[in-house]
């Protein structure tokens, strides 16, 4: 059993398509099939059901997959530990963040880049659910997000700040002069809202269900940048945390009253996993800002 075979197996299990998996691994389909067959022979178990051009994991494949992922992740962590001996002169750091954390993340990235110019930082923006999945799979080093974690026993969480759920309007909007507002006050306001995969949207849906209200939603988007630009036209408002638009000119965040309308931002590490020195340094900057 070889490490490369485990990597091929993981990619094939993810895509359930040998052609696509081979392309993703930069090898021929013949090489991929041969290596997977060798792995199955070593294990004396079929990992895939091959039905014509379709493939799916067998029961043995499903059982073996998390162990393969753990082995590959452990080897990468060991390699990273050796790379860290180079005193942060080179390397790569991969992190995930929800859009609400951009104002907090931006100055930390600038400071980190000035201090460690040889480290390449990759930032993945997405929903909390997607990012936590990538964290669990070892694809990113840590995550910055708003809201609760679905599997708290698998992570270590450090609080960053809290942010009030707010009605976001253009500064010339008729409601822009309000100091506070309630959900009942905005049921007639045309809204563009974040998509259902966003934690903020789930938070909103929970509250309006509890209060038995129906909002006037005209659009939903999975891109916060576009959503904010639509609000800047003055034709619509949206509901986000105040932190999400804290650096946006021309907008007003009106706090939505209610003791439960506050969301917590956190820095999330995978539990019991090796932490890169570069990730620790960036984490320190994020905690300071």
From TrEMBL:
It comes from the Bacteria. Pfam families: HTH_1 (PF00126), LysR_substrate (PF03466). Gene3D superfamilies: 3.40.190.290, Winged helix-like DNA-binding domain superfamily/Winged helix DNA-binding domain. One of its GO terms (cellular component) is cytosol. Keywords: DNA-binding, Transcription, Transcription regulation. GO terms for molecular function: DNA binding; DNA-binding transcription factor activity. InterPro entries: HTH-type_LysR_regulators, LysR_HTH_N, LysR_subst-bd, WH-like_DNA-bd_sf, WH_DNA-bd_sf. PROSITE patterns: HTH_LYSR (PS50931). Residues 1-58 form the HTH lysR-type domain. Belongs to the LysR transcriptional regulatory family. PANTHER family: HTH-TYPE TRANSCRIPTIONAL REGULATOR YBHD. This is LysR family transcriptional regulator, cyn operon transcriptional activator. The lineage of its organism: Bacteria, Pseudomonadati, Bacteroidota, Chitinophagia, Chitinophagales.
């Amino acid at each position: 059993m070889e490490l490369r075979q485990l990597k091929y197996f993981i990619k094939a299990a993810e895509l359930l398509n040998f052609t696509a998996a081979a392309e993703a691994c930069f090898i021929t389909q013949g090489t991929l099939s041969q290596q997977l067959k060798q792995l199955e022979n070593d294990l004396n178990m079929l990992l895939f059901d091959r039905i014509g051009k379709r493939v799916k994991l067998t029961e043995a494949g499903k059982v073996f997959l998390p162990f393969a992922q753990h082995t590959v992740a452990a080897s990468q962590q060991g390699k990273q530990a050796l790379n860290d001996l180079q005193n942060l002169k080179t390397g790569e750091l991969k992190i995930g963040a929800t859009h609400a954390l951009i104002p907090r993340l931006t100055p930390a990235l600038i400071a980190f880049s000035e201090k460690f110019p040889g480290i390449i930082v990759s930032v993945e923006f997405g929903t909390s659910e997607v990012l936590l999945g990538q964290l669990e799979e070892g694809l990113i080093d840590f995550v910055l997000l708003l809201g609760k974690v679905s599997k708290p026993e698998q992570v270590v969480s450090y609080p960053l700040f809290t942010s009030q759920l707010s009605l976001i309007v253009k500064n010339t909007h008729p409601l822009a002069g309000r100091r506070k507002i309630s959900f009942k006050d905005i049921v007639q306001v045309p809204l563009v809202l974040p998509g259902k995969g966003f934690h903020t949207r789930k938070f909103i849906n929970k509250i309006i269900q509890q209060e038995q209200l129906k909002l006037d939603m005209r659009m939903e988007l999975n891109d916060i940048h576009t959503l904010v630009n639509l609000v800047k036209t003055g034709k619509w408002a949206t509901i986000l945390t105040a932190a999400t638009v804290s650096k946006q000119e021309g907008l007003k965040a009106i706090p939505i009253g209610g003791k439960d309308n506050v969301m917590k931002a956190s820095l999330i590490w995978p539990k019991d996993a090796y932490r890169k020195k570069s990730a620790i340094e960036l984490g320190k900057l994020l905690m300071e800002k």
